[in-house]
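Q: Hi! Curious about what LytTR family transcriptional regulator looks like structurally. Here's the sequence.
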Amino acid sequence: MKLKNFVFLILIIALVLGGLIYWREYATRDQVSLIHVLIWQIGVWAPWILGFILLRKMHRNLVNTKIGLAKLTLIGVILVGLHFGWFFLLSSTASPYLDLPGSRFGVYRYFFVFWTLIDLALLWFMVDKLNTSQEQAEKIPLLLELTRGGNKFFCKPSDIQWLVSENYYTKLATNQGIFMMRKPLKTYLEILPMHTFLKIHRSTIINMDYVVELARGSGSTLEVIMQDGTRRRVSKSFIKDVTQLFKERVY
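A: Let's find out. The predicted structure is below.
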């Protein structure tokens, strides 16, 4: 799902809920303006845009393993909790219903029930859309256009062994040799099949089909050794996911 589509969805939710709240609280219409209610609701739901960006970024790195799925779910639950706190904070300072009879902290009791249900529905919707988008992307045949010495090469993802970020370039090791492309690493991370490619460091992505060894270094460090002999260090934050994933892949 594209970010602009999600922003549009959030805007629709905010406007519809604002209109319903204004209509429901008919006794206070002479004290509250519709514009104030709509702006308040946009402010309440806007943080989910940041939540979507975070979930989309984390989704690509976490769904490779069962532990990753649990982490993604936990992150989503934390986001719901944070949004609930934001809703309470904003409403207690900027709600159009603040200090009106029957309201407390700028809200009515039934708000919390509906807001929680909508939060959970949004979370489910985002994760489902992210999973569906990734599955559809992996079904599409993909060729990467790489350049070297003025010549163009067409490479299948399965021919890429590893990718490393080097300043404004990405270095790709393929079965056709090494290529330096003036594209950020995240560009490739978004299009490569996530069931095969794994981010092990903020600057490194590997093709798991070319891994021949996981080597323990000094302390708690971990290195991935590729078929071409290249050794790539695994970032501490990825060590558990990497080891768990390879346990699930081997017989």
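A: A fun detail: Residues 109-139 form the longest helix (31 residues).
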